[in-house]
Each structure stands twice: as structure tokens, then as C-alpha cells.
Amino acid sequence: MSLESAVTYLLAIFLFAITPGPGVFALIATGMNAGFRRCLPMAAGMILSDVLYLLLATFGLATIAEHWGEVFGVIRILGALYLFYLGWKLWKAPVQSAEVASPGQSGGNLAGVAQGFLISASNPKVILFYIAFLPTFVDLERLGGSALALLVVLTVAGLMAGLCLIAASAARARRALRSPRAQRRLNRGAGSLMIGAGALLIAKS
Asked: What is the dihedral of CA 150, 129, 71, 190, to 10 degrees?
């Protein structure tokens, strides 16, 4: 991979990370409800899922998706139901314990990683991205170990930059609204984003 291709790929991954979708909406909801730090485990889980799909793409993800389409469909439905559940929790969260009810905080950092992984892994957009987009940068059939390692590093860097930008923006909005009424609106707004993210997953084929 040339320097120009590497920079272009890094920029494309960054833009992909900030493109609205279930994962972005879930991250915004967590940042609005619990702050920037609680977004980090979720972002790590999302990145882990993307790296997994990147590695699978080098071993024929298109073939896997074709023969295991029903399995991916079940994962997508489970991910959507999980987002509905998180959205409902945020809607019902009392103002005085809003942070305790945060989807990114419940269960600790490991749970946040698992949540982010499930949300990203169940998103067909992620699968299609690596099937259709990645081959435009590298020849997957001739991809060596060093080139694959570079792709992983670029993917992690681009995704982390984009997801952290989203999380920081959502957390900044949270800090600006401190009154009980504003917190209640934040909870319900974040819950609506979670439910909307689940609806997007249901709607995707």
C-alpha cells in the first residue's frame, strides 16, 4: 500500500466512523447520558468488531456472508432488540440516578465493550463496507502480513478518531445541561436515539 493509499484509507475510515448509523446513535446516547469516559469501552467494542470483519474480509467475508446470511440476520435482530431495551432503560431512568442507568456504564467496562461489539457486529453496513470498500485499496488475494498489520493500525486509528469526536461532542452537550428538566430530556433524547438505532437495524436487509 502506497502512502497516498494509506492516507486515503485512513480518511475514508474516519468518515465511515462518523457516518450516522446504529453505532453512532448508540454512542451519542451514551455520551449524552454518562459522559465521554463511558463511551470509550463501547467505542473499543465497536472497533474490535470492525477489526474482526477486516480480518474476515481477507479470508473471504463475502463467501461467509453468502452462506451464513441467516446467522447474520439473527445477530442483527438480537442487536436491534438489545438497543430497544437500552432505549427503554434510558426513558425510565430517574434523573437523580441517570448515570447509574447509563447503557455504557451498567456492568462495568467489559459490559461496555460487549455492548459496542454487539451493536457494530449486528450492523449490515459494517459487513458491506469491508466487502465492497476494502478491495478498492488492496488486493486481498496478495495481502501480506505487514500490509495487513498496517490496515489494522489504520482502521483502529481512523475509527478511534471518529468515534472519540462523536463521544466528546455528545458529552459536551451533556455538561451544558445540568438542570433536572434538562437531564430528563437528555435521558429521553438518548433513549430515543437508542430505539431509533434499533429501528435502523430492523429496517436494514
From this structure: 100
Q: How confident is the model at residue 93 (pLDDT cuts 50, 70, 90)?
A: low
All structural domains of the chain with their residue ranges: 3-203
Q: What span, in angstroms and rounded, lies between the C-alpha atoms of 42 and 31? A: 10
Q: Which helix (H) or strand (E) holds 201?
A: helix 180-203
Instruction: Using alpha carbons, list the distances in angstroms from residue 175 to 13, 25, 179, 181, 186.
Output: 29, 18, 10, 14, 11
Grid cell digits, residue 179: 438542570
* Residue 33 amino acid letter: N
Q: Using CA atoms, how far apart are residues 137 and 5, in angstroms rounded to an integer?
A: 7
User: What's the rounded Cα separation, in Å, for the pair 55 and 155?
Assistant: 11
- Read off the pLDDT of residues 69-90 as tens digits, 9 standing for 90 and up: 566 666 667 667 776 777 777 6
CB-CB contact of 83 with 201 (8 Å)? yes
| Burial group, residue 69, by CB count within 10 angstroms (0-12, 13-18, 19+) | exposed
